[in-house]
Specification:
Shape: globular
Strand order of the largest sheet: 1-10-5-4-3
Number of domains: 2
Strand content: 25-35%
Number of helices: 2
Length: 157
């Protein structure tokens, strides 16, 4: 009798485990809301407006996993939106996995695998620069390069 109860428990546990693993797959297969067909556009936040102004006259390029950074390279923090690396003809925008947590009050501290490159897999933490207290972990995504668009001169006849 004991052996039968243990066997039945194993079967029930097996079904429970199979259902637990199948649930995320089922949830992923369900179609979400069609964002492109939505007639109402969300209003731009202050940070999105600031980034749009910074990107005026620039064209997005192919995402890159790493960017070259030097100590003199400029970093601009746009609250709840993105980090912008560089200046001049090409700048790189890093939106991170959780852009709503970006705050210009915090400093970024990196533990790099390469001294001159900053990559999406580098360990980056945010700290309060005054107290040195840990504020959180920053998870980078690919960097999006934006290059100044130069008008092409029309061919003369």
């Amino acid at each position: 009798m004991t052996r039968l109860c243990l066997g039945l428990r194993g079967v029930v546990a097996g079904f429970a485990a199979a259902f637990a693993f199948a649930t995320p797959v089922i949830a992923q297969e369900q179609p979400g809301p069609d964002l492109e067909s939505s007639t109402e556009a969300a209003p731009m936040t202050k940070g999105e407006k600031q980034l749009a102004k910074l990107l005026e006259g620039r064209e997005a390029g192919e995402p890159v996993r790493c960017i070259r950074t030097l100590p003199s390279k400029r970093i601009q923090t746009i609250d709840k939106t993105a980090y912008v690396f560089g200046s001049g003809t090409t700048i790189y925008v890093q939106r991170t996995r959780n852009p709503e947590q970006i705050d210009r009050r915090y400093a970024l501290v990196t533990q790099r695998f390469n001294a001159t490159d900053l990559c999406r897999l580098d360990v980056v933490t945010a700290i309060d620069p005054i107290t040195g207290i840990f504020a959180g972990v920053v998870f980078f995504e690919d960097f999006i390069p934006y290059t100044v668009v130069r008008e092409r001169k029309a061919k003369r006849d």
